[in-house]
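Record 1 of the preview.
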Amino acid sequence: METIKSIIEDNGALYYDSEVVSENENRIFRIYITAKDGVNLDLCAKISRIISPILDLNPPLSGAYTLEVSSPGIERPLKKAEHFRGSVGEEIKIKLINTDKIIGKLNSFDGEVLEVIEEDGEHIKIDIEDIDKARTYYKW
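->
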């Protein structure tokens, strides 16, 4: 995976995450990338063409699969510390393990604790271990 991350970075993007999904009985190995200036179809296709032969030699899973390179989207999941770190200043939506829901601006993240400013201006500190699910949030 380090080779793939290096290739992605050499092409002006950052590795965000990957997953294996099944859609219509087909397995898909999906790699998510981000870029400072945004991710477009040309960038995804370029990176896909470069890493596809590498994955042919060292498959990420056994059996047939399709490779997809994609943006994680405007409302992207936040799973890792680096995801939270990279989302400081953005609106986020959090579901805590105790089922409470919080929506607000991610003000800071120190690697363990997030500070979120809710719409009413209240500052809330949340331990990353207390989060069930989180994602960036776009007010449509």
